[in-house]
Amino acid sequence: MNSKRPNSIIIKGTGKYVPERIVTNDDLSKIVDTSDEWIFGRSGIKRRRIAADGETTSDMALKASKAAIESAGLTPHDIDLVIVTTVNPDMLFPSTACILQAKLGIRNNIPCFDLEAACSGFVYGMEVATSMMASGRYKNALVVSSEKMSSMLDWKDRSTCVLFGDGSGAVVLAASGEENAGILGNVLGADGSDTAMLCMPAGGSAMPPSERTVREGLHYLKMDGREVFKHAVRIMQEKALEVLDLCGVSAEDVALLIPHQANTRIIETVAKRLKIPSEKVYVNIENYGNTSSASIPIALDEVVRGGKVRKGDLVLLVAFGAGLTWGATLVRF
Ligand code: UT7
Questions:
Q1: In this structure, what is the dihedral angle of CA atoms 112, 114, 117, 119, given to the nearest 10 degrees?
Q2: DSSP 256-270
């Protein structure tokens, strides 16, 4: 294998897939005590996509991946590294990345693995792929974030079930000879001191599934939304500034901010604190809700295909999620 170190790692292709079924706030108001006014006013969400019965995380990943590979002008056989980020793997093991590899019908001598960093998964995945590719050993990496959040929601809990949606976003990262292009910098972090703030208590080795865990609904997502909100605003601002500083640029140089889509009020506050005007902030939460790690690559695909980024533009990605985890990436298109 040619191990020449690349000058940069660029985003060569993007793709997304969201399930067909649309569930509106009005639909949800028929199953829990809520309203379009509350959901939209507090979160910015109008509707979300929900996977069909039997539609899996890897099925969604497959569709997003195919779109990304095609837009990169490659075939699945050109991919030499697969990273799937998800909190809803098809099963605890084997990894969804291995299941996806088989569905893509690609080579069996390449590393394929899952990475779990909750909503920050995509930004973590980009850093891991970029670091592995810097050695020169991998030329075209597929990073795909796929989330079937509907599989872990308690449809009787109005404080959580209205907020999330299903979907998948993917990028093909490629080793390039270009200078000062692609992924310019990445900062990651985590704080595991209060894991209960956002978690799914049962189903793992700490609390294996049992009649009791099902009866008590411990296999559902639990969140202290107010606490998460406070941390999200502070940390997203800090990490955005940190990655800009690392790359020697200022917020004014950013052409587009793509934040994790958890709440428009979080996004607006972060953008305001960074002094990035709203026209430079991409928001699509209205259509999809919070799709966890898939939210940034879904948005990325929409801005690329929508012609909202031009060659040379600086795009800032900032994520925050359970763990707590966080990360920010600066990309030059
Ligand atoms: O991606 C992972 C990261 N996740 C996040 O970033 C989520 C961050 N948090 C949030 O986005 C917000 O905290 C929420 C949207 C989850 C909630 O907004 P909030 O302004 O913090 O509302 P709250 O939790 O303080 O609840 C206010 C009220 C409560 O009633 P009382 O106690 O004031 O009488 C809730 O019971 O709203 C009530 N409520 C609802 N009412 C109607 C909670 N959920 C609903 C609902 N419909 N769906």
A1: 100
A2: EEEE--S-HHHHHHH
Tell me if 120 CB under 6 Å of ligand 1.
no
Contact 315, 294 (CB under 8 A): no
The whole-chain average pLDDT of the chain stands at 97
For the chain, the straight-line distance linking the first and the last C-alpha, in angstroms and rounded, comes to 28
Beta strands in the chain (DSSP E): 8-17, 22-24, 47-49, 81-85, 112-115, 140-148, 166-176, 182-190, 198-199, 222-223, 256-259, 314-321, 325-332
Cα distance between residue 49 and residue 63, in whole Å = 15
pLDDT tens for 103-121 read 999 988 999 999 999 999 9
pTM of the model: 0.97
Give the relative orientation of helices 57-71 and 295-305 as an angle to the nearest 10 degrees. Answer: 30
Atom of ligand 1 minimally distant from the CA of 260:
1
> Could you identify the residue written with the tokens 């006014």?
37
Give me Rg for the CA atoms of the chain: 19
**Whose alpha carbon is nearest atom 14 of ligand 1?**
225
* Ligand 1 atom with the shortest distance to the CA of 32: 48
Structure confidence at residue 188 (pLDDT) = 98
- The CA distances from residue 169 to 16, 144, 208, 240, 293, in Å, are 4, 6, 30, 22, 9
What is the four-CA torsion angle of 244, 250, 253, 254, rounded to 10 degrees? 40
Ligand 1, pocket-test mutation among 28, 159, 163, 166, most atoms within 8 A of CB: 159
User: For the segment 131-190, what is each residue's pLDDT rounded down to a tens digit?
Assistant: 999 999 999 999 999 999 999 999 999 999 999 999 999 999 999 999 999 999 999 999
AA letter at 217 = G
Within 13 Å of residue 220, how many CA atoms lie on the same side as its CB? 18
- The predicted pLDDT at position 86 comes to 98
The catalytic residue positions are 119, 260, 290
Tokens for 326, please give them.
């966080």
C-alpha 68/C-alpha 11 separation (Å) is: 10
